[in-house]
Write a structure and sequence with these properties.
The complex is a heterodimer of chains A (255) and B (257).
Chain A lengths: L1 H12 L2 H20 L3 H30 L1 H8 L5 H31 L3 H27 L3 H29 L6 H9 L2 H10 L9 H12 L1 H28 L3
Helix pairs in contact in A: 1-5, 2-3, 2-5, 3-5, 3-6, 3-7, 3-9, 5-6, 6-7, 6-9, 6-11, 9-11, 10-11
Chain B lengths: L1 E10 L2 E11 L4 E5 L6 H9 L6 E6 L2 E2 L10 E4 L11 H11 L10 H5 L15 H14 L4 E5 L7 H16 L3 E5 L3 H5 L4 E6 L2 E7 H8 L4 H10 L24
Parallel strand pairs in B: 3-8, 3-9, 6-7, 7-8
Antiparallel strand pairs in B: 1-2, 1-4, 4-5, 9-10
Helix pairs in contact in B: 7-8
Chain lengths: 255, 257
């Protein structure tokens, strides 16, 4: 499998968009740390960017890349290689290149300016989100017929996870505000990797004290080792499940 | 070497392949012809396992095509349009393919690789290559591993006359090595010197699979294009594409054994 990923990776790393993405992340992170005196404040600003931009880039870039390499995938299919191996190689190549962009663009500044648990939590979240949304994008790309539809679906998914979902959660919480919702919101957060990532980092910061009883419950849960395992586990599920579904339809697909 | 048994394939409502049965043996050069959309490429893709037939079986060297990719090491495939990763260099592509196939230089057939002048462009990224040059790369890759079965989809489309001639000579040389070669083409004159058998597809149905000699005898024409035109004229006219040149109908031709 590595034979193939290596070349996929090499191809993507030379891609201008990935290079631009790395530089963009680097400039943003660097200027955040320079502008804010307080490292924790800078991390908070950086967090909002990571939560919005990372999923978007992972989704759209992966979908475009998949459709651009469609003929190449066809060519690989005419070689003695199994479909599973081809798709996983593509996935590995994309993940590694997007991750290295993230680690170079955000990882280095964070490790230089704010190498504390909060900073590490941010890096953990960024890494998970990249892996998760690449996997979701594969599902969207494999299932859709052409590039336009694939990118459309990727964008819709991004809107859903980044914007609409929060609105829905607020609406639910508001509608059922008479009931004890703490445990339920915990469950809701697991249904959206972006929310999960946000809560995970917020609770590492001091501001969680402002969040009242729910915040305390969260802090109790996410602050513990159990919470870290929970987050990692749910993120893992979010990465594996869409990829597995994508693999399943890719195996049955007519190219 | 390749056995196709009652293969059916539908894309939504469109029947692309209808009850195709055929048998291709070593040493044959089969010309797959038919109008656009007659199912030629789908048939080729079914053999390569890229398209899954709805029913029917395909065997390559007695191994059924059903998911295990190992049989494809015996096949060299040249696609209609070869597209490669933009930033990959030509040399890298060849190295990658050699690694995938676990092949080493002494076992490689580098005739086309050299004749098409690929060593001089190894440092060029694939995206800078012209369509014709990409075709040359595809052709060189298909022949590189000396496979017993060659599948060429429109091999001469986009090649300049000189390269086209080189490719044709290479096909003839491989034919002499007793390989099985499957070619689709719209340029009948290109197929003239190459083929031993003609398989004609229309609207997903196989109209006939005959060897060239029988075809010539039956029609009294020596030129392939004329012979085919003559055969077609024998049937009812029911297709617009081929109206003036050829005309076909569903015949009761039994598939060749």
């Amino acid at each position: 499998m590595l034979k193939l990923s290596r070349y996929v990776l090499y191809d993507i790393l030379r891609n201008k968009i990935v290079i631009a993405y790395t530089i963009f992340l680097f400039i943003v992170s660097f200027s955040m740390f320079r502008m804010e005196e307080n490292g924790s404040k800078a991390l908070l600003s950086l967090l909002s960017i990571v939560l919005i931009v990372l999923p978007l880039v992972s989704l759209v870039f992966t979908t475009i890349h998949y459709f651009n390499s469609y003929e190449f995938i066809e060519l690989m299919l005419s070689q003695p290689l199994s479909r599973t191996r081809i798709l996983l190689s593509e996935y590995a190549g994309l993940c590694i290149s997007l991750l290295s962009a993230f680690w170079m663009g955000v990882g280095i500044p964070v490790l230089v300016f704010s190498p504390d648990p909060t900073g590490l939590a941010l890096l953990f979240t960024g890494t998970s989100l990249t892996v998760v949304f690449t996997s979701i994008a594969f599902l969207a790309a494999v299932r859709s017929k052409d590039k336009a539809r694939g990118i459309g679906i990727a964008l819709l998914l991004w809107f859903y996870f980044a914007l609409i979902y929060d609105g829905l959660v607020l609406l639910t919480l508001f509608a059922f505000s008479d009931y004890p919702m703490e445990k339920f919101t915990l469950l809701l957060s697991a249904l959206n990797p972006i929310d999960l990532g946000r809560i995970f980092i917020m609770l590492k910061m001091d501001i969680s004290a402002l969040m009242g009883y729910t915040g305390a419950l969260y802090k109790d849960f996410f602050g513990s080792g159990q919470g870290v395992l929970f987050t990692a586990g749910i993120m893992g599920l979010w990465a594996i499940l869409p990829l597995w579904l994508a693999l399943r339809s890719f195996k049955r697909k007519d190219m | 070497m390749i056995r196709i048994e009652q293969v059916n394939k539908k894309f939504r409502r469109l029947q692309v392949l209808e009850n195709i049965s055929a048998r291709f043996e070593q040493g044959q050069v089969i010309a797959l012809i038919g109008p656009n959309g007659s199912g030629k490429t789908t048939l080729i893709k079914s053999i390569l396992g890229m398209v899954r037939p709805d029913s029917g079986k395909i065997f390559v060297k007695d191994q059924q095509v059903n998911g295990d990719p190992a049989y494809r090491k015996d096949i060299g495939y040249m696609p209609q349009i070869g597209r490669y990763p933009d930033n990959m260099k030509v040399g890298q592509l060849f190295r990658m393919m050699t690694k995938i196939r676990d092949a080493a230089p002494p076992g490689l057939d580098e005739d086309l690789y050299r004749q098409f002048g690929i060593p001089s462009i190894t440092e060029k990224p694939m995206r800078t290559l012209s369509g014709g040059t990409r075709q040359k790369v595809s052709a060189a890759l298909a022949f590189l591993f000396n496979p017993p079965i060659l599948i060429l989809d429109e091999p001469t489309a986009g090649l300049d006359p000189l390269s086209s001639e080189i490719l044709k000579e290479k096909i003839i040389a491989e034919k002499k090595k007793n390989k099985l070669i499957l070619i689709t083409s719209h340029v009948l004159s290109d197929l003239e010197e190459l083929t031993t058998h003609i398989m004609y597809l229309q609207e997903g149905k196989m109209q006939f699979l005959k060897d060239l000699q029988t075809l010539q005898e039956e029609t009294g024409e020596l030129k392939l294009s004329k012979a085919i035109a003559r055969v077609m004229r024998g049937y009812d006219t029911n297709n617009e594409w081929i109206d003036q040149l050829f005309a076909v109908e569903k015949n009761n031709e039994t598939p060749a054994k």
